[in-house]
Design goal:
The protein contains 2 helices and 6 strands; from the N terminus they run αββββββα. By secondary structure, it is α+β, with helices and mostly antiparallel strands. Strand 4 and strand 5 form a beta hairpin.
Length: 136
Amino acid sequence: MIKKFIIILIIFITFFSNQVFADWEKFGETDSATYYINFNETSYDDKYVYYWILTDYFKAQENSILTEKYSSKKVYKQTDCKRFRTSAMQIILYKNQMSEGNILINESYKESSFTTPIFESIGFEELEQICSHTER
């Protein structure tokens, strides 16, 4: 009986752990975090590409308005590939890694200013990845 339970538990954990991380593709790493992009939830309009970025920190981060530390951040982006610039539309901070656990902050922005990433930065790599993906 216990043996059956353990086998079912292992199958269940294996199946669902793969489902949780299946849509995130790693595109970069720095000294402080690993960066992922979700190509499966990408959408487009005449001017912009919309997509999610996940930052998974190696060490929990502090924020001046939070009492708890956060370990991951998801950002919904609006990107103009023609001008190579991007803007954050939504930011979600999570207590645990890989956007798991309690949501500590969930902020949406109707209007956010566009920025152009610095050459060879993680932001530059992000735009190269998403813009080359949209050209396919």
